Amino acid sequence: MTTDTAKSARATSFGTAAQDYDRYRVGLPEEVADAVLPRGLDAVLDLGAGTGAMTRLLLGRARHVYAVDPDPRMTELLAGNCPGVEVHEGTGEHIPLPDACVDAVVVASAWHWMDPDAAIPEIARVLRPAGTLHLVWNRRDRDVPWVADLERLRLEVAGGDDWVEGRIRHYVSEPWLPAAAPLTDVRIEALPWSAAMTEDELARLLTTFHAFIAAPAERKPAMLRTFAEHVAADARIQPGDEGLVRVPMLCHVWSATRA
After folding, report:
1. Structure confidence by residue, pLDDT tens digits, 165-199
2. What is the domain partition of the chain in residue ranges?
């Protein structure tokens, strides 16, 4: 299997756990979404939309919302979650939309699966003049010790690597652009916030990553039990009065404008 083929297979593996992915992955709150993308747009594209966590937020920000994802299991769930959205199967490198049809393209926690040299020109093709591209990663803040410990446990128990984390850090570290890209005015932000979830939701969140999804079915109950036991035993993760854990989050945003 070639590197590109393996990467594509890994990217689309999440469709086998689409329901859990949709339920336990943490979406952005309205106030952070407002900072990422203004309201009142005519048309916006959620590229690599998955099950529609970002798409649902875009519905109140644009008159027309498109969603594109390569996995039909994801797009089926997305279409059910987001009535009124025009949903297509496609990739960042091959967007099934006409030229200059959107004011903004948002890629939420999916850019690391795309080839920038091929995706940037294709995104620029569907953007209107002065339209904007927003690459967004909504992630747990690993600079917080208990979050870092939980991430290490996830890798120890489920296996896999930190390839995605490395790609995120690469993309949000500098205002990069492929050669001759028709984009300008690169802006990078890190917006802190906190997510409220139960201990069970926090443990099950760890099951929505590739290594767990790809693990043998007979191993998964014991792996989930290890996650749950760690969350319950770590005094730093204890829920507050409402029975909810406050999970520190960072929303990383890389934005640029169509030249």
Report:
1. 888 888 999 999 998 999 999 999 999 999 999 99
2. 3-142+162-197+250-258
- 3 state DSSP class of 81: helix
pLDDT (0 to 100) of residue 4: 52
Q: Give the CATH architecture of domain 3-142+162-197+250-258.
A: 3-Layer(aba) Sandwich (3.40)
Among residues 26, 21, 16, 10, the alpha carbon closest in space to that of 164 is found at: 10
- The whole-angstrom separation of Cα 254 and Cα 112 is 13
Burial of 160 (0-12, 13-18, 19+ CB in 10 A): middle
At 29-72, the pLDDT tens digits run 988 899 889 899 999 999 999 989 899 999 989 999 999 999 99
Q: How far apart are CA 115 and CA 132, in angstroms?
A: 18
How many Cβ atoms from other residues are within 10 Å of residue 162's Cβ? 14
Helices (H), 99-209: 116-126, 145-158, 163-171, 199-205
Amino acid found at 163: W
Q: In whole angstroms, what is the distance from residue 214 CA to residue 223 CA?
A: 13
φ and ψ at 153, to 5 degrees?
Answer: -60, -45
**Tokens coding 210:** 């590739």
What is the separation of C-alpha 192 from the centre of its chain, rounded to a whole number of angstroms? 16
pTM score: 0.87
The C-alpha atoms of residue 49 and residue 105 are separated, in whole angstroms, by 11
Q: Which tens digit of pLDDT belongs to each residue from 232-252?
A: 999 999 898 889 999 999 999
Q: What single DSSP character describes residue 246?
A: E
